Amino acid sequence: MSEPELKSALVEKPIDVSYDFGNLAVFDTNPLNRDLLADDKQKEAHLQSVARENVQLLVNQLLQLPLKRSTEGGDSTDHKSSTVPLFVLPQPSTQLPREKPIPKQKAPTKWELFAAKKGIQKKAKEGKLVWDEQTKEWVPKWGYKGKNKQMDDQWLVEVDEEKHKNNDGELVDPRSLNRMDRKRLVKKNQLQQERNAKRALGQ
């Protein structure tokens, strides 16, 4: 079996191609051979030939770029290291299309629809920290060690007889009421999120 004929590394084009080394891309504006494209038997060979020539041109240009050498360690047996040459590529000059589609716009919540109808402007967000006069430091408004849990740690709490009575007229610890209110608010927010999710799905 005869060895395949080696193609020449010298490639000439009527119109010079352009390069984007950062993306390892070649842009060839030379027209293709219409006669060969019309022939089903020669079409594929013609396209492969043009592609090979452009890749050869890219390799020829890459060999002219600056090199840096990186030392790679050997395996655990011989402990030898080898020097590997690396091409220094410039920044890409061609903007590539998005890899993923543009995210779809979320359906407005019930409150957002109501606010838009009534012309209610969205308030600017406040910071997550608040000054604590007792500890003289900034603490979170909510969450772990939040300001809203400050009453839970108090060993003594003033009780308002009118506000902190249950249905039987007995006094209730306001610290337990504070925790109950937080749990109630969390459940309310979860229900609202589920309703908004169902509304977004058209259910």
Pick out its properties:
alpha+beta, 203 residues, two-stranded antiparallel sheet, 32% helix
Strand ordering within the main sheet: 1-2
Q: Tell me about the largest β-sheet.
A: 2 strands, antiparallel
Characterize the quaternary organization of these chains.
Answer: single chain
Number of beta strands = 6
Shape: elongated
User: What distance separates the N and C termini?
Assistant: 69 Å
Molecular structure report:
- It is built from four helices and six strands.
- It has 203 residues and is an alpha+beta fold.
- It is elongated.
- The strands form three sheets. Strands 1-2 form a two-stranded antiparallel ribbon. Strands 3-4 form a two-stranded antiparallel sheet. Strands 5-6 form a two-stranded antiparallel ribbon.
Give the arrangement of secondary structure elements.
Elements: E1 18-20, E2 25-27, H1 34-38, H2 40-62, E3 67-72, E4 82-87, H3 110-118, E5 129-132, E6 137-140, H4 174-200
Antiparallel strand pairs: 1-2, 3-4, 5-6
Summarize the structure.
This protein is an alpha+beta fold and 203 residues long.
